[in-house]
Design a protein that fits this description.
There is one protein chain. This protein is mainly beta and about 140 residues long. It is elongated, with a radius of gyration of 22 Å.
Length: about 140
Amino acid sequence: MKTILSFVAILFITITVSAQEFKFETEVIDYGKVALGSEGKRVFEFTNVGDAPLVINDIRSTCGCTVPKKPEKPIMPGEKGQIEVSYDTKRPGGFSKAITVLSNAKNERKILKIKGFIDKDAAPAKEKSMVSSGGTN
């Protein structure tokens, strides 16, 4: 019995010493006050601070209005990675959403958050056109 417990203890210590881990630049993105229909894409940046490749298995959001996109390849130790999140800005009012990142990191589950306010009265920024609209000279 002692041999089995010793083996389990050594295995547990080995796993925690060589675990993957990531450090996010920020765990909350505040959109602030944005116009209805404006660009809803934001990016969470992180670094693999562990000593083994970090694999993000899945990312889940709390609703269909928030669409996360995970990195397809493992993030090697010391490298940076990104998780892209798109929020549907055609829904006026305040929002606060959670995104759950499932990975092979020491803490398998990481919660990220986005929040902000969609202002229905503000007009979204329009792209400038190269074509002049107006009268003749």
